[in-house]
Amino acid sequence: MKINKIYFSIVASLLLVYACTDLEEELRGEITTDINIEGISSGGSGGGGDALSSAFVALRNAGTANHGGYFALQALVTDETVIAAKGGDWYDGGVLIELHKHTFTASNGFINGAWNQQYSGINTVNELLASGLDAGSNAQLRVLRAFFYWRLMDLFGNVKIITSPGVDAPQASRSEVFDFVESEILAALGIDSVLSMDLSESPLGVGDNKYRINRWAALGLLSKIYLNSEVYTGNARYDEAAAAAGYVIDNGPYTLCSTGCSVPNLGKRPSVASDPDSLEGFAAIFAPNNENNPEIIWSVQYDEATAGGMNFSQMTLHYSSQFTWNFQDQPWNGYATLEEFYNSFDDNDRRKKASFIAGPQLDFGGSAVLDYASDDGNPPLNYTPQINELEPNSLREAGARMGKYSFKQFGRPDMDNDYVIVRLGELYLNRAEALARAAGDWSLAGPDVNVIRSRAGVGPLSPITADSFLAERGREMFQETSRRTDLIRFDKFTGTWWEKPASAETRELFPIPFEQIQASNGSLTQNPGY
Amino acid sequence: MKKNLFTSFLMLAFMFLAQGMYAQTVNGTVTSEDGPLPGATVVVQGTSAGTTTDFDGNFSIQAGADDVLVVSFVGFASQEVAVAGQDQITVTLVADNELEEVVITGYGSQRQKEVTSAVVKVEAQEFNQGAISAPEQLLQGKVAGLQIYNKGGDPNSAAVIRLRGISTVGANQQPLIVIDGVIGASLDLVDPNDIESFNVLKDGSAAAIYGSRGSSGVIIVTTKEGKKGETAFNYSGQVNIAQKVNSVDIMSPSEFVAAGGTNLGQQTIWLDEITRSAVTRIHNLSASGGNDKSTYRVSTNIRNVEGILKNTGFDQFNTRLNYSSLLFNDKLRVDFNTSFTKKNQMNGFPQALRYAVMANPTMPIYGVDSPYQFNSDQFGGYFESLGLFDSFNPVSMVEQNKNEGSGIQFNYGLDFSFSLTESLDINGRIAEQSARYSNTIYYPTTSHFNGNATSPLRKGLAEFFDAQFSSELYEIYGDLNQSFGNTDLNITAGYSYQQQNFKSKFLSLGDFPDNSLDFSDAIEYSQDLLNSGLVGAGSDASPDEKIIAFFGRANLTIDDAIFINASLRQEGSTKLGEDNRWGLFPSVGLGVDLNNYLNLSNVDLFKVRVGYGVTGSLPGPNGLSQPGRGLAYDGGQGGAGTFLTRAANPDLKWEEKAETNFGVEYVGGKLSATVDVYTRNIKDFILDRVVDVAEFGVDRRFENAGELKTTGFEAAINYDIVDSADFKYNMGINFSTYKTTLEDYVLEAEMRGPLGAPGQNSTLMIRNAVGEEIGQIWGPRYEGVSGGNPVFADINGDGQVIANQDAALSEDVDMEVLGNGTPDFEMGWSNVITFGDWTINAFFRGAFGHSLINTFRAFYEPRLSTQTSYNFVNTELAVPELTSARFSSLYVEKADFVKLDNLSISRRVDVSNISFIDALNVQLTAQNPIIITNYTGTDPEPNLVDRGTSDNGQIARGSDVLAPGIDRRYNYFNTRTFTLGVNIKF
Predict the structure, then answer these.
(1) pLDDT tens for residues B892-942?
(2) Separation of alpha carbons B685 and B653, rounded Å
């Protein structure tokens, strides 16, 4: 009897176990499907928080204002910023020196980072486009995707144009990518050409909406792209560059931030009298509280708590500068400005003080910031514009630092400043240059460029030449990821500057990342010269 | 003595042999030296008539008067006894230590002789002695091909266990642990004192019965069981004292100043300030006993372990019960075992060792000794050299901060074995494990290290981590034994279901008012609660991780000389892609005892065997086949969106290893030897692979890619040099060597293993290339120094030296293989000398041919002018003229070593006059008394897995198996330990 029961339970349990073969994996604690959460989009000045959040978050995370990708590439191959090796510190196997000397290779991690960041953004946009949003949202997304492709075209030239998630496409030529970018933006604007501007059909909005794309942002972007068309395709499109910029300047709701345009100075130390109570004009555009600046047309929202990803304070400042701003974390002491570039600013150019941290540093209480571990045995921290050497033993306090996106007291490693993508000031310069280049007469740049100079508190540009215009553009656009593109357009990128020998023309394009070439199974061809 | 007793028994048995020759019922008893043997087989020779003994060892069988009974039992030498007319026979079987040793092979056991795969059994008397704080330490060096390295010997970090080199790249590298039949158990569950034996299944044919988890080998742990009889107590206790053996050679204060270091006026030997002589105490008390129907063993272990770094160590309490009972007329055997472990860990701050090496030796410990005005109140009275990257006062770090963990583990296993018929058993197993661990880290407001003492606000930080793990196992299998003439057949078949779950949560917050109390106990006062974005929190839960399997095995023994084993397991896992969840893992083995046919003189066994088996490896994490996404908030407006972090791969499958093993076993006279050669092909390893970001939307997904091939050779020899009554000397040597090459990979070649911060994060030092041995140390060859800079060799002779890191894989680079982190071969050499009441045990261990990158030297040995506030490392290899830090062959050192690993002297004390003590043993052990090596770092043992870089005191948690050979700055310092132990039976 007992035995029978045992037999029965054995048979029963055998049947039971054969049923137990379900191996479905239901993940917990991990997101596997695309979700988008809409917040209160009307509340903020920028209009963020709508159904497009993931796309614009992707832009924030696309190397826009941190170390390790897009920003680093645009800045470190030019004459505006450098990271010198301070002993072992910041040597990094020579990759930073290679960026400066233009001897970088396809294995460079920054190049890989920049590539991946843009394609990751494109994928997010493609997923959103596939989800079926309204026409206005779709138009914004297409401009944003075109912007990512513009970055890729500008850096790498020939890239794949992917327009739906998971569907591969062949590598397109740089001209094809240009045509794609142009046509996408024009389509979003509802026009065939910027030379005949009837925007009545445009699904893009007209109101100020800094964290999203309106028609002014799209046109500003177009002016940038047309200005460089000759580099990208061989065809000059300067009339269109001037027309696009001019339309925004003349019709848009934006004004240059000049006298009277100010915000409270969040970096002020109460006991340091020379710290102004407010930041006015040029400095206000990039301040930690720049979200309502009237000059900004399109910006990327950064916030210390809810929108992290801007790390300039960490990237550039000396460890001991923590005591000037009471930073939550110790900075990294990396990026500095080249002496020559620093000296290209007149001392009375308001942009000089607004762009750099230089000279002796004071702490919160107004005493000298002391660095007892100082290399020169002189404890007070003093950022000298001169950098003694690129490698191996650059002094740790050498070089003026990037301070345009200024710092606030008690700042966190993630900064609060919004990063500017399109602003009115640049459009003046775009129009100035486009008019001059279209006519072959640099004096035509005068009226617009002098608007900018006058805001900076300096007299008219004289003489106006390609070189002086480039220098002016450098002073205005420092730290705005414009320098590399500008140097290439002015044919100076392959020239020489401090610790940088002449480089081959093929360096005007970055190599396609080695890892991606390998992963692409032959569908990507490397750029010449690599 | 006992042997004589046995002989007399035999004589007695044979004396009755000649009488009576008619069919009759023969009753008898089968015993061993420990008492009656239940379950022994009694067969009438030449027939299928047979029976097994009951719990008292009694049997009853019909046999003719001239029949011969064959009595056998696993682990004992079979005996043939002629009935010879007797109706009452007593047979005493003798345990066979060499030939008839029983090895556990998974879902059963076999006589050692019958095993056709490479299985090694290590029993208690062979274990390492002395300061043992984890079970794996008992085994270190004892099994050819089994590598166990806890580099530096941090008492709170687990050893890396590796069998026959790497068997997988992505997934779990550690062998599968099976404790008393429970698959995938944790070694933390068992106290070293409770272990009876280890069975190490080395090759694929042995491990295949464990299917998708068998690729890294299997270690089967058997705990001690109760023994029938009156309650016997056993106490063992030990106290040991440990000191650091080697240090990093750094400059003395005066040397440092002379070399241009910044002089802060004091003389501080930082390493001495943070280390100590560590005292450890261990107590174990066990009681064992039972009657005819049930036996039990209960034990309690208390460990109080100190690390040599101040404020590190752990206290552990463990108790275990093993209970066994026979029910239903002895047809049902029930085994129940359970254990409970409570462990309080002082994890401390091992990072302090690194900061002690690099701290300025003229720096004062306390602020009052500062050479300039210094607000030491802000730092709790300690001095801090501010304005310097990655620099913290190590004494402050160790004394002010707290990193404590506490864990509780509980498990039980209930096994049933029911004799359905004489030849068929049904077995069931229910087992459960659960573990909880919680960790609290607290940095007070005055700690410069992570406490943010320099900042005017947000000082102090508390971090909490809690995890819980549970595992359930249900198995049922049948066991059929049949004999046909001279052929024995054993068939096992069954089903296994296992489910595991893991949950964790994390919280960090800071900005505490002051140091008036430990605010990790009062986090409600954190001001981070008032500011958005500063409280860190996270939680995670695993899916129901399931492994389901059907398995079967057949063992065939012919003529007691030809052995055939075959097994098959079909297994599925939730961790794999939905199109590839189930795998099939077969094995087959053949062994022949040639001696049975050759009849060599003085030879007991001469077996050749060959085995082939396929095993798998599952990925470590869950969800790899599914897409992964991150979520980011879009500013403060409440919007959020996700982005892809991992592309899906529904085809993801298990990694597969096919292994062929050929072995020869010899036992004869004083010599026994085993030799194995093997080759293993590992394919489809699961890698986080770079994919075309344009197509997949993210540049990462997990794929099966790549192939490894390992070939190896292992030998173990044991010889009784002297074997007389009053003096015995036994010597054993084991030797192993293997070579692993990368046959196929996602990239032709790649660089891994960054040197780290400051400034060398992009300096990758380990190259893996298709067709080459894995883990090659790759870099420029140092030739000399010029103007403070290193001069590298123009290796390819093209007139220019290209040694930049991102050119490491280009054709014109001037770099070469500078070494390899995996040893060429490893050896263990044991010596056991017994005379009178004394036993001396000396165990030497060595590894040869591996190199280590001495990262302390790479960072701090060059006399950087920008580094005068860190101390300089100053080994015999230092080049004082060098003033720039560049990785090269200069920092790659051969790390061959020989250690007298374990020297133990024990004496049996005569207690015959003490009535209440049965036996007393006193023991003195030294660990690491002698280390012979040229390596200038702290510990020459191989570093098989790279945990990655860390700076600013971060703890590195990676595990890169393709980057062996990097001796990181956070490795703990090795110790020398002396132990006094006592063992009392009463």
Answers:
(1) 999 999 999 889 999 989 888 888 888 899 999 998 899 999 999 988 999
(2) 9
Q: How many helices (H) and strands (E) does chain A have?
A: 20, 11
SS3 B433: strand
Q: What is the pLDDT of residue A286?
A: 98
Residues of chain A with C-beta less than 8 angstroms from the C-beta of B785:
none
**Distance of residue A230 Cα from the nearest chain B Cα, in angstroms:** 26
Q: What is the pLDDT of chain B when averaged over all its residues?
A: 88
Tell me whether B467 touches chain A (CB under 8 Å). Answer: no
In a domain, B72, yes or no: yes
Nearest to B192 by CA among B133, B116, B271, B149: B133
d(CA B459, CA B138): 45
Which among A14, A301, A372 has CB closest to B386? Answer: A372
Element (H, E) at A189: helix A174-189
Residues in chain B within 8 Å Cβ distance of A94? 762, 804-806
Tens digits of per-residue pLDDT, B504-539? 999 999 999 998 999 999 999 999 999 888 899 999
- Please report the residues numbered 227 through 286 in chain B whose beta carbons come closer than 8 angstroms to any beta carbon of chain A: 262
Q: Is A93–B806 a contact, with Cβ atoms under 8 angstroms apart?
A: yes
b or e along A435-467 (b: 16 or more beta carbons within 10 Å of the residue's beta carbon)?
A: bbbbeeebebbbebbbbbbebbbbeebeebebe
Chain A closest-CA separation from residue B286 CA (Å) = 36
What class does CATH assign to A53-253+428-519? mainly alpha
Residues B683-706 pLDDT 10s: 988 888 889 999 999 998 999 888
The residue of chain A nearest to residue B458, with distances taken between CA atoms, is: A328
CB pairs under 8 A between A and B: 353
In a domain, residue B44? The reply is yes
CB atoms within 10 A of CB A408: 22
Residue range of the domain that includes B55: 2-92
Identity of the residue in A10, A27, A37 whose CB atom sits nearest the CB atom of B640: A37
Contact assignment for B864 to A393 by CB distance below 8 Å: yes
CATH number, residue B78: 2.60.40.10
Q: How far is CA B905 from CA A320, A342, B832, B922, in A?
A: 58, 75, 10, 8
Would you list the domain boundaries of chain A? Answer: 53-253+428-519, 257-293+302-417
The pair of three-digit structure tokens given for residue A199, joined into one six-digit string: 């925007």
Residue of B nearest to A328 (CA): B455
Indicate whether B66 belongs to any domain.
yes
Burial of A356 (0-12, 13-18, 19+ CB in 10 A): buried
Q: Is the pLDDT of residue B273 over 90?
A: yes
- CA nearest B293: which of B330, B322, B318? B330
B633 in contact with A at a CB cutoff of 8 Å? yes
Q: Does residue B45 belong to any structural domain of this protein?
A: yes
Whether A54 and B689 lie within 8 Å, measured CB to CB: no
Q: Which residues of B touch A370 (CB under 8 A)?
A: 386-387
Number of domains in chain B: 1
